Amino acid sequence: MLFGLWMARNDNQVRGVMATGATVLLAAAIWLTIYFVQQRNAGNNDAMLLANSVTWFAPLHIDFAVGVDGISTVMILLSAIIVFTGTFASWQLEPMKKEYFLWFVLLSSGVFGFFISTDMFTMFMFYEVALIPMYLLIGVWGTGPKEYSAMKLTLMLMGGSSLLILGILGIYYFTGATTMDVSKLASLHMDVTAQKVFFPFVFIGFGVLGALFPFHTWSPDGHASAPTAVSMLHAGVLMKLGGYGCLRIAMFIMPDGLAMWAPFFLVLTCISVVYGALSACVQTDLKYINAYSSVSHCGMVLFALLMMTQTAITGAILQMLSHGLMTALFFAVIGMIYHRCGTRDVRQLGGLMKIIPFLAVAYVVAGLANLGLPGFSGFVAEMTIFVGSFENGGMFHRVATIIACTSIVITAVYILRVVGKILYQAVPNKKFFELHDATWDERVAVGGLIFCVAGLGLCPLFFQDIIVNAVKPIFNTIIANAPAVSALANM
């Protein structure tokens, strides 16, 4: 796709290359999902399917190693959906369409590479590849204080990366410096003292990208200034690298460190869940509202992982999938409203249900999914998280679960308030009557995301089964390597 974009000579060719590439990518992700299910049903119980490894840097035992399990399969499918819909959401983007899509594809490549990597250093490399394009995509094509937002995002995420590389090197050397393979590292039983030292480095390093309190402040500014498709990919997929990395590296390789640090980080994630929802209530910019909502929902992912029950971890992966779809839908619709109205201020909007009914209904659907209405993806994910969290018998964990549950009510408050103000109040500006509803390309993007949000909500068992089969061996390995983890339930 990068080569095709490089060779494209005009905007129509750029659109054609992107549409073709995104469609092929989505088809390949769907094929991968079907193939994965068929292999599991046929009795193939390998930890990773389609695994392959090529030595990259022998002195440090770095391999270009790839493979997929159920978690990475659904994350790849999510990424492909966001890239496909983001392409059509950017159909009319100006200026420098070619350059924009080149950076967009590079960002997407980093995301896909991260999810298929089974080598710890290769994961980190793709993690950095996914972060670098964000600076230019926001700084050049963004809106508002875009230079400030791009710089703040880059500095904070690079700060997280510096902690992450220290944690990765600590894992490597304190496990004998013989491999970077994640599964092999988990079986080497890293020194307990070293685990306790390096666990917070890795968890915070990934947690910064997952909007862990108090390192979340880059996220609202970055979302508010980013172009529509970049916000979709950023919130829909890029922030999921944080939760995925915390599970795959920090928790899987350092379970004794998890046992020690889980209560501390559980407090921070509980704050993220409630604080993000409360902050969304007082915002007046549509993008800031959804950005703080993302802080709350991504905090819920880390919250569920730290509860350390199989059901809660399954719910965390479902939440990653659900939030990726519904927040991409939110940002797509918000971007389209902003393009027409010239403002995202809820105080200056009103009556949009009469003027642009397709986009207004799409906003309602996104809001209802966000607040966890049954029938949409948000309900399935959040119920699995809270049921799994309450399975943890410790008083501390159950109190934290009850506090986190209050975010559901708070979410309903800000979602319904905004829906009422921008869709059903009197039209504040007569020029709004001249607005046109969604174009065909916008309907493709929005309609595809609505289909996915409703599909996951109505038929969740297909994806839940894929996720459960991947979570179970990870969870069992953590418990087997650190029996102290199971004691967390009795705090």
Key features?
single chain; 491 residues; mainly alpha; two-stranded antiparallel sheet; 2 strands; 3% strand; transmembrane helix; NADH_UbQ_OxRdtase; ND/Mrp_TM; ubiquinone binding
Describe the fold and architecture:
- The protein is mainly alpha-helical.
- The chain has one domain (2-490).
- Helices cover 75% and strands 3% of the residues.
- It has 20 helices and two strands.
- The chain has helices spanning 2-7, 11-41, 70-89, 97-116, 120-141, 146-174, 182-187, 192-209, 218-225, 228-238, 240-253, 255-281, 286-307, 310-341, 352-355, 357-370, 377-390, 395-424, 440-458, 461-481, and strands at residues 49-57, 62-68.
- The protein has a two-stranded antiparallel sheet.
- Strand 1 and strand 2 (62-68) form a beta hairpin.
- Helix 6 (146-174) packs antiparallel against helix 8 (192-209) and helix 13 (286-307) runs parallel beside helix 17.
- The chain is globular, with a radius of gyration of 22 Å.
- The termini are far apart.
- The relative contact order is 0.10.
- The model has no long low-confidence stretch (mean pLDDT 87).
In short:
This protein has 491 residues and is mainly α. The protein is built from 20 helices and two strands.
Topology:
Layout: H1 2-7, H2 11-41, E1 49-57, E2 62-68, H3 70-89, H4 97-116, H5 120-141, H6 146-174, H7 182-187, H8 192-209, H9 218-225, H10 228-238, H11 240-253, H12 255-281, H13 286-307, H14 310-341, H15 352-355, H16 357-370, H17 377-390, H18 395-424, H19 440-458, H20 461-481
Antiparallel strand pairs: 1-2
Helix pairs in contact: 2-3, 3-4, 3-10, 3-14, 3-19, 4-5, 5-6, 6-8, 6-9, 8-11, 8-12, 9-13, 10-14, 11-13, 11-20, 12-13, 12-18, 13-14, 13-17, 13-18, 14-16, 14-17, 14-19, 14-20, 16-18, 16-19, 17-19
